[in-house]
Structures are given as C-alpha cells and as structure tokens.
Design goal:
There is one protein chain. The chain has 5 helices and no strands. By secondary structure, it is mostly helical. The protein folds into 2 domains: about 35 residues; about 190 residues. The longest helix has about 70 residues.
Length: about 230
Amino acid sequence: MKTSYLKNQLKILPLLWVKDCKIFVGIISIIISNVVSFTWNFCDLLIILVSIGLAERYKNLNKVVRFKISNNLTERINWQKIRNYYVIMNELVKEADNIVSPLIFISCCMNVYWICVQTSEGIRLVTTESKISIYYFFSLFFLICRTTALVLSAAKIDDESNYALSIFTRCHPSVFIIEVIWIQQQLSVDKVSFTAMKFFPITRKFILTVRIHIYIYILLTIYLTFLSN
C-alpha cells in the first residue's frame, strides 16, 4: 500500500511542478507586459512634453520679434542679441533631438505597427464575428489619438522654425540691415526640427504620409480578407 501511495505521489509531482511553472510564467508575463506598456506610454509623454516646451520657447521668441517689427520698433531691437537667441534655440533643438530622436523613431514604429495590427484584427472580427468588444474600439481610437498628438507636438518645432523665417521675409525693406540679413541666412540654412534618428524630419506632412500608407494597408487587408473568404 505504501508503494502504491509513493507511486501516486511521484505521478502528481510533475503535474504540480508544471502548474507552478505556468503560474510563475504567467506572473512574469504580466509584469513584463505592464513594464513595457508603462515605458511605451512614458516615452510618448516625454516626447510630447519636450516638443511642446521647445516649441513654446520658439513661439515666444517669434512673438517678441513680430511685435517689434509690426509696431515699427526696429530701431530699439538689438539685432545681434536676437540673432544669438535664434542660434541658441537652434542649438537647443539639435541637442534635444540627439537625445529624443531614437525614442521618436521607436515610438513611431511601435505606434504605426500596432495601429496596423489592431486594424487588421478589427477587419477580421467584422468579417468573422457578430459581436466586437467596445474595448477594441477604445484601444484603437486611443492609439490613433496618441500617435497624432505625438507627431503634431514634434512637428510644432518645424512650424515655429519656418514661421521665424517668414517673419523676416515680410520685413519692410528699410529694416534689412546686415544683422537682419545674417538672421535670415542663419534661419534658411540652419533649419531645425525633430527627427527620427535623422532618417526623416517630423513635420505635418509626415502624418499625412503615414495616414496614406495606413489607408493603403487597410484596403489591401480588406481585399485579401474577402479573397480568402
């Protein structure tokens, strides 16, 4: 009887070990998933905040210059000082871009990838199932809004940089002294914007390009889904 009892215990031990392993793997998977999700959200939020901060500094500088030019206060402007301010702003944007550009590249790739994955899954659910979870639509909508907010925030730096150049191109001819010409040349040659690891600049045109490619992907997915059915 003792022998049969030991045999039964030996049979149960591997099952208990497998069960414990599954629980352990499940806990580790949940922890990793939460850490990755938190890191992803934190990176997007960091990019948005840094972009807004730099864009607002550029915007305030442009406002001061535009106000003085439009109110004919050009004689009171220290153009050398203004030029130095723009040089400092450009260098600040470049330094920030060197730090956050890898995050922008990874974030853009991850966001676009998951938008495509969830869109493909949504098309599959529509064609195969009668009921779709509300969470799915909320998740996809949130992901699209977050990606749009990230790109528009980063593109604001490019907008303010181009606007700074347009301020000086609209100046009255009497304002075109040598310092103003230097500023114009500096802004036209040394254009700044956030980039994705120098592969491409983040501008408003970029989000239109991404949307076009996503629409093409959706159309191809729908076409292939109907072909398979």
